[in-house]
Amino acid sequence: MALDWFKRKDKGITTPTESKKDTPKGLWHKTPTGKVIDTDELEGNSWVSPEDDYHVRIGSREYFQILFDDNKYKELFANIESKDPLKFQDTKKYTERLKEAQKKTKLKDAVKVAVGKSKGKELVVAAMDFAFIGGSMGAVVGEKIARAIDYSLQNNIPFMMISKSGGARMMEAAYSLMQMAKTSAKLARLDEAKIPYISLCTDPTTGGITASFAMLGDINIAEPGALIGFAGPRVVKDTTGKDLPEGFQTSEFLLEHGFLDQIVHRKQLKNKVNLYLDLVLNRPVRN
């Protein structure tokens, strides 16, 4: 038959997860509402869709570009990498997952720290990358945040944390959970020194991140529509057996219930952060 070559000879063909390819980065981006935006236009609009105001999920590189003057900054503690003290293995070894994540994202771990000038004044920023194992917090993430706070203390520079994480990294077990106490203790020292700390929650900010440094800012702000909570909505619903309120665990819901100080549009992020710093440090407001 002429069209026999269209017929599948082998049934039940499956492609292993590790062999599946991500969609290559193209010339456009599609938002959850179905709007299609040119990638260059999206970048020029702070990675916010001009069609529906959707805040596209971005990483540390993009946040540094938004916050630091002329995208000039110095990365701190860049060469710290995770180990595998527990010799953890599920469907694959933790060491293999780390190598794959590093190769795919070109990152050492799920947070980057940098210092630079924002509207002419120095600022230390620690920004999480969800692309690296879901932005999960292991020992390296906790250590880099702790060192970032130490740098702020030693140099009397305000500190900003940008959270974007699924929570603690299960492959490091108690080593991961220890970072909650470690980072919180460091922030207490920052508070004693009267050095401002701004916490920005982005989509998503969940688990141990929410239970520690993400909610300890002198001012806690969030991007529009961000998922913020400890357990996810599905887990909460399954546990309680009750339907959840509309918009549950969105930044708008948390603002309404007093868990956030402000929701800040990404295009206004740099101005809002520096306005707060000027006010709290009692210095002239910069334009």
TrEMBL record:
One of its GO terms (molecular function) is carboxyl- or carbamoyltransferase activity. Pathway: Lipid metabolism; malonyl-CoA biosynthesis; malonyl-CoA from acetyl-CoA: step 1/1. Its EC number is 2.1.3.15. Residues 26-287 form the CoA carboxyltransferase N-terminal domain. Gene3D superfamilies: 2-enoyl-CoA Hydratase, Chain A, domain 1. One of its GO terms (biological process) is fatty acid biosynthetic process. The keyword Calcium does not apply. Component of the acetyl coenzyme A carboxylase (ACC) complex. Biotin carboxylase (BC) catalyzes the carboxylation of biotin on its carrier protein (BCCP) and then the CO(2) group is transferred by the transcarboxylase to acetyl-CoA to form malonyl-CoA. Acetyl-CoA carboxylase is a heterohexamer composed of biotin carboxyl carrier protein (AccB), biotin carboxylase (AccC) and two subunits each of ACCase subunit alpha (AccA) and ACCase subunit beta (AccD). It comes from the Bacteria. The lineage of its organism: Bacteria, Pseudomonadati, Bacteroidota, Flavobacteriia, Flavobacteriales. Pfam families: Carboxyl_trans (PF01039). Belongs to the AccD/PCCB family. Keywords: ATP-binding, Cytoplasm, Fatty acid biosynthesis, Fatty acid metabolism, Lipid biosynthesis, Lipid metabolism, Nucleotide-binding, Transferase. It is found in: Cytoplasm. GO terms for cellular component: acetyl-CoA carboxylase complex. It comes from Avrilella dinanensis. It catalyses: N(6)-carboxybiotinyl-L-lysyl-[protein] + acetyl-CoA = N(6)-biotinyl-L-lysyl-[protein] + malonyl-CoA. This is Acetyl-coenzyme A carboxylase carboxyl transferase subunit beta. HAMAP family: AcetylCoA_CT_beta (MF_01395).
